[in-house]
Amino acid sequence: MYAVRDHDQAVTQLRRSYAAVRPGQPVRLAKRTSNLFRPRAEPRAPGLDVSGLGGVLRVDPVARTADVQGMCTYEDLVDATLAHGLMPLVVPQLRTITIGGAVTGLGIESTSFRNGLPHESVTELDVLTGAGEIVTVRPEGEHADMFAAFPNSLGSLGYATRLRIELQPIGRRVVLRNVRFSRLEDLADAIREVSATRSWAGTTVDAMDGVMFTPTEAYLVLATFTDDAGPVSDYTGQEIYYRSLRQRTQDALTGHDYLWRWDTDWFWCSAAFGAQHPVVRRIWPARWRRSDVYHRLVRLEHRHRVAARIDRWRGQPARERVVQDVEIPLDRAADFLRWFASSVQMTPVWLCPLRLREPAGPGSARSWPLYPLWPGQDYVNIGFWGSVPITAGAVDGDVNRAIEHRVSELGGHKSLYSDAYYDREVFDRLYGGDTWRAVKDRYDPAHRLTGLYEKAVARA
After folding, report:
1. Where are the alpha helices (DSSP H) in 53-166?
2. Model pTM?
3. Is the peptide bond before 348 cis (omega within 30 degrees of 0)?
4. Which of 38, 95, 208, 358 is deepest in the core (most CB within 10 A)?
């Protein structure tokens, strides 16, 4: 745990480094890892010093809350909370996602069908604004406008230095049922039932996600947290987790391994690096089988284009990166999945049901204007990560533009951690442009922080 005095010193250093950035120069965080997939212009100024803002300040097992610094990774946070039998309400699937990043840039996981998105479990946070001030932001009060607009602002309104989040119990063991569906409509009906009752076939469901391999082969993974003893599987060695869905109808993992079940092979993307080949897997150190290592390899490829040059030498067509997560209303999810399977032809895809968190007491669910989803509406987050060949007559970006168009047609939304191609008018309509500008003008009147459209679309 970090001492409060150390936290205060780290915030002072952050503000000092912010003041050292000359007006007109881009403001960036000086951090070692990133889970973004959009290339950006190289910074011309030193990044903000966040070196002292990566820890857990306090876990309160009675109140079930944690005070966490903004650059703390979920890996470190989970290590601290599991010691008390607790977990954050939503734990994004990759270890090095930071709490501040998941709140300002969104995150999702298998508890989202009942707990919503990570920012919905935040009760207060401290934000470094574009004016260089630290403000404490809560759902009500003087800075309620920043609280509502901070999610999906991607650092364009400020950076979180401290967050207080809610926690929930997790069992020492997680029992899984892998339920296969040959019709996507039946899968949607099952999601609807579990979301409404939080149970399936008489058993409580604490977490739910799934995978579509083809439109006639899809799985829901229904997880139940328990402290009962029993055997558990290990997918950090030779076995690969996503393949188990086809091989087992029942399974179990430790609570720790369940939270990071996707990280070892970055879902299934480790295959692109040969890490799933039995021979390579035996010699690839287990400590390097994790998402941040694979992401470093991707960044090296973006920089040096070695694979692209080899493809050209072999006469292969150039490829378009298609790395997206989209939210589709549950009633239209089957339509999107069939369209995607026929038009994009990329499999598998991840399925993660989502509903905005319902309030504990009287009143309607809170709205989040920069990522407006309908309260009470069931959605499915569909994640797909890879590349497709650029066909004759097409240009790089055409497939992503088609996906954006189809998502909008179906009343959905897409996350902004990767490539986006919207024009400004459409972007503002989809991502709360009027609200963003009002909050921007209040907290960053000189517009020192890069704008949301510039970050997400113009890659500034």
Report:
1. 74-82, 99-105, 112-115, 144-149
2. 0.94
3. yes
4. 208
